[in-house]
Design the sequence.
């Protein structure tokens, strides 16, 4: 066992004790400052890494701006192409519509029948309203024609069937007229 005898006056002992407390407090403050500086340094490193990543993304985005602009131009050109193609397709359909219709009428027309009138009365969005007229040698031929007309694809709403006897030169004939719709869509 060691016995310590302190011969220093009380005032000096208090000063030494205050110095030791100040030393420990200073050491703690320095350690806190070092730790704070360490965290600040780490945060600055993270920020620098994020800034470098942002710069890399900005450089990549700048390189992609040309590609994005090309894609936009391509999309505009594609839309223009699709609009023109739609227009051409509708014009071709309209152009072939009459050929198709005349071909169907020719296929169903009996041998003893002659068409003399074929007119478009009105064009609706989904159908053409048409009138067809001519001469036939008998009412049976006209009835056969109307039956075939009813069975033809695209022809609907047959109405206003007009029949009358007439003489064409020395021949007797039946004059007829039929109104109907031809579906375009």
Sequence:
């Amino acid at each position: 066992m060691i016995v310590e005898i302190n011969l220093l006056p009380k005032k000096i002992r208090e000063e030494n004790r205050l110095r030791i407390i100040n030393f420990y407090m200073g050491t703690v403050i320095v350690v806190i400052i070092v730790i704070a500086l360490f965290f600040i340094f780490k945060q600055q490193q993270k920020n620098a890494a994020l800034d470098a990543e942002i710069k890399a993304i900005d450089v990549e985005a700048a390189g992609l701006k040309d590609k994005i602009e090309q894609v936009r131009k391509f999309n505009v050109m594609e839309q223009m192409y699709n609009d023109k193609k739609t227009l051409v397709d509708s014009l071709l359909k309209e152009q072939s519509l009459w050929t198709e219709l005349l071909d169907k009428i020719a296929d169903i027309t009996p041998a003893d029948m002659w068409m003399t009138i074929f007119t478009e009365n009105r064009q609706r969005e989904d159908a053409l309203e048409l009138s067809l007229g001519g001469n036939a040698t008998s009412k049976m031929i006209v009835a056969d024609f109307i039956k075939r007309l009813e069975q033809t694809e695209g022809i609907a709403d047959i109405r206003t069937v007009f029949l009358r006897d007439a003489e064409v030169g020395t021949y007797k004939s039946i004059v007829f007229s039929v109104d109907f719709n031809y579906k375009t869509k």
User: Anything to note?
Assistant: Residues 155 and 182 are 5 Å apart (CA to CA).
